[in-house]
């Protein structure tokens, strides 16, 4: 019996480690994602963003194209005129920084010209899961 419960513990530990490693694997190919977010739901949430952002490379609106934004340095898209705050920001877009920026753009990065926050903070994981798929093929 003791042997059995030890084995259970090891299995659970290994599963937890797999989840942690998966979350850290920023460049994991689409399909191998282990984040909690649902990219299909995130694509619907993205309608809030589409007035100002496309997901096609080099197509900018009021905001820059978000193609490949996950894992990218902030303010790095060629041909888009960022605010000074964004150009000078030393930020890489990941789960943490995107969640904070989308919840309160000006609180996270004072001076940013993005004036709008994500309407519902609970949508952030799905939205970020969707952003991860862009340019990840
Ligand atoms: C009203 C227009 C507008 C809307 C709506 C909007 N944004 Fe933005 N977004 C901008 C602008 C303008 C910038 C450039 C900010 C700067 O230079 O400070 C920006 C920048 C960004 C950046 C940084 C990109 C980079 O290249 O560093 C991300 C990420 C982003 N927006 C995500 C989103 C998401 C996700 C949504 C939807 C929840 C959204 N935005 C909605 C206007 C908008």
Q: CATH-wise, what's the superfamily of the largest domain?
A: Cytochrome c-like domain
> Can you give the mean pLDDT?
84
- Secondary-structure-derived class: mainly alpha
| Largest sheet descriptor | none
Count of the domains: 2
- Cα end-to-end separation: 47 Å
Describe the structure.
There is one protein chain. The protein has helices spanning 2-24, 39-45, 84-88, 95-103, 105-108, 124-133. The chain is an all-alpha fold and 137 residues long. The chain folds into two domains: 1-28; 35-133, Cytochrome c-like domain (Cytochrome Bc1 Complex, Chain D, domain 2, Orthogonal Bundle). The chain starts with a helix and ends with a helix. Mean pLDDT is 84; it is low at 13-33. Bound molecules: heme C (HEC).
Write the layout of secondary structure elements.
Blueprint: H1 2-24, H2 39-45, H3 84-88, H4 95-103, H5 105-108, H6 124-133
Helix pairs in contact: 2-6
Heme C (HEC) binds near residues 48 and 51.
Give a quick summary of the entry.
The chain is mainly α and 137 residues long. It contains six helices and no strands.
Q: What are the defining features of this structure?
A:
2 domains; binds heme C; mainly alpha; about 140 residues; about 40% helix; 6 helices
